[in-house]
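Q: Predict the bound structure with adenosine monophosphate.
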Amino acid sequence: MNIANLLERTATTYPALPSLAYGKEIVATYREFADQVAGLAGALRGKYGLDAGDRVALIMKNHPEYWIALLAVWRAGLVAVPVNAKLHISEFRYILENSDSRLAFATAELADQLTPLVNELPALDAIISVQDDSYQALKTEGPLALQDADPDDLAWLFYTSGTTGKPKGAMLSHRNLLTAVLSYFADVTAIEPGDAVIHAAPQTHGSGIYGLPLIAKAGIQVTPESGGFDPAETLELIANYPNSCFFFAPTMVHRLIGSPAFAGADISNLKVIVYGGGPMYEADIRRAIAAIGPKFVQIYGQGEAPMTITGLSAALIRDEGHPRRSEILASVGTERTDVEVRIFDENDRPLPIGEIGEIVARGDVVMQGYWKNPEATQETLRGGWLHTGDMGCLDADGFLTLKDRSKDMIISGGTNIYPREIEEALLTHPLVEEISVVGRPHADWGEEVVAFVVAKSGTLPTPEELDRHCLEHIARFKRPKEYFFIDELPKNNYGKVLKTDLREKLAG
Ligand code: AMP
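A: Predicted complex:
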């Protein structure tokens, strides 16, 4: 099944319901959405002469046209290459070239930057600005019927964030995306017609994939006018849209409840905040539940198995009386309905309950491999399991606890130390706002533990009191040997802390 079928079906059954919104304004019904998609698909195969399987990039700030372009690409039997709009022009160039994209849809300012690349990249025929009249005219070229797609046909090239080396294109099929949609209903929440997903996070990433379940069930895709995450605007949109749903990086949850606009805001419309993509510390999720109520679901996955590998359900997050409340909140939940998870040692042998090793997963949500990179595919998918590069352990109740990326693990005096445990401990200190722990090379020990601390505004915790706090919570040898107090942690465009930058800071 072509994933664009989701729209076709909903437009047939609910033609008059709202589908796309820009801020508080509804900009298309489902019939209008589907008609524009069919017209644009016609232009892609007709005017631009693209063939089935050709790649089309979407380099757009969050914008309602993203949905029209994305669905048109699929309807026409083409492959979408959604690209984070905050990347550098050299990264856009790399992704366009690596994917051999024939066209790119872009929001206005990005289109200006990208247009010179048409002369540099042989495969690239045009950059189409979705804010131009000529783009609107494409939708009237003559509709194209929904093209057939095999479940294993490629639908989405998902470029990894490339925190180590060049980004790689994870190949996601129509089956992978449909699995993500079905497992949303199985593990996250049901959707009713008229529910809204508000895209405060990039549509090219998790938030965008979580737009699809709403298309399947006649929900509304709301793009904030700011194109991103502004806590005050987000709160206004919640007040406007009944049953509003979100995908948030953990730092966004933190920023929402910490914003001055939060006090007194009406959040009764909020249906669910799905959080994931980076660590949510126990102290932070407890604070968030206290502020918002238990309207959370956690997911853990990666571009290679999007939406996702494990999940922590709303029911478990609500269960305050659970005897293992603490461990559960600090975990990333249990296997998703459609996924198997194991912990492997360095020789790919399964490890017993409680032992830490590499998290591996298999199921219909796992990518087909990396685009034009058979060596990385073979390495990552060896033995039929996705090797996530994340370290963790499973407990007897099936909960997965993430330690760290293998490359973030600290080895000191031959002992493995997982920064996350130290970060969890220090975050319970009342003066600590944010924290990141990394290893610093050490002549005798190999590495030693150091911490970068963002203190609560207006406070000045001392290394001695943080050290005392550690002694009360974690083993003596895991305490940071030095604390660096900084104004903010370096983060990438998805809000993930860049430990590589912190390590470079130390080296410099
Ligand atoms: P990406 O492919 O950019 O989505 O990054 C995926 C990586 O983010 C994973 O391999 C994890 O290291 C991290 N990650 C994703 N979800 C979570 C989560 N719920 N808790 C902690 N880390 C996460």
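A: Residues 160-161, 276-279, 298, 300-303, 332, 388, 390, 402, 405, 494 surround adenosine monophosphate (CB under 6 Å).
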